[in-house]
Amino acid sequence: MNSRKIQKGFWKRLAALAVMAVVCIGLYTASLVDRHPLMENEGREFVKARVIEVIEDNQQSGGVYIGDQTVELELLSGAHQGEHIQAQSSSAYLYGTHCTPNLKVVAIVSESDGELVGSVYGYYREPALLGMIALFLLTIILIGGRRGLYSVLGLAFTFLCIFWFFLPMVYRGYSPVIAAIAVVIATTLVTMYLVGGFTVKATASVLGTVMGVLVAGLLAYLFGKLARVSGYNVSDIESLIYIQEQLDIQVGQLMFAGILIAALGAVMDVSMSIASTLQELHDKNPQLDTRQLFRSGMTVGHDMMGTMSNTLILAFTGGSINTIVLFYAYGYSRMQLMNMYDIAIEIMQGISASMGVVLTVPFVSLIGAWMIVRAARKSSAGNGKTL
């Protein structure tokens, strides 16, 4: 009986993977947008290079770097691969890097009157970043086993939804909020059914997650109306307005779409945790009714509310820590701080996402308890527990 149940679950997950593959193909087709870069890059390319020699250094007495270095580079990629050029490298914080022989860098190369002109863009850090990502994914698979593999697949699908669906739809002029809702629903369905299988608890988690994220978005909209904060009050609005003038992107909705996507992870975590707990409790004690299961879910949710809300608040705070340090150092008054757009946006994002997490608890507890008890009654009449 158990082997038959395992086999049945395997084929259902295989079907989910097949559906995900078909959806990925559809997403890729939707991502084929004819983009026209707003910055002219003709005749210029970013290439991997190696520092051969530092021709002129910019190190002063005392170890201070002033001005630019002049270096000789060997181009390791691009149309001029294998050629050697002289380039300038700044020791600034954001661009350039202090070059030493054999250092791998990224160079900007352009051709002018048949002569190559180059400058060092920055340190070549792609291998380090890819290594970090690979270590993260490998850790999930080694510790989580088959479930970990399904989690990685769900994570990959999430990124595909964002880069192959959300961004192209926004670029084409569609509503960012509607596109974000579609991403939330698609990601939730694939992730929950991959990790939890086609079960009652997975279905309850899907419903609870979607409801929680939509509530977070609605609250953000209402808070924005009350505080008179919109998507046009963000710090980089000048650049976004320029993009809006060139394209049909609905800039005003981007902030609210971002809140929906940002809240998804935490809401999904709470939703699946409570649904799994309810299913486990009912499996251990099938005599529990809907009311008792609901109370158990609320009890578990009470402990999760504080930690998950803390996670979201700290995540938004950590993302703005540089700004917060500046405000603290300059000694801004409470009246000034509480009426700044930046502070209002951070509070609105953190509170609305946390409210989505908190309200997910009763949503999932009620839906999960009702569905689990209902499935158990059907099971006693000869039906299986899985959907």
From TrEMBL:
Transmembrane segments: 128-145, 152-171, 177-195, 202-223, 254-275, 312-331, 351-373
InterPro entries: YibE_F
Signal peptide: none
Pfam families: YibE_F (PF07907)
Keywords: Membrane, Transmembrane, Transmembrane helix
PANTHER family noted in UniProt: MEMBRANE PROTEIN, MEMBRANE PROTEIN-RELATED
Stated name of the protein: YibE/F family protein
Organism from which the protein derives: Butyricicoccus porcorum
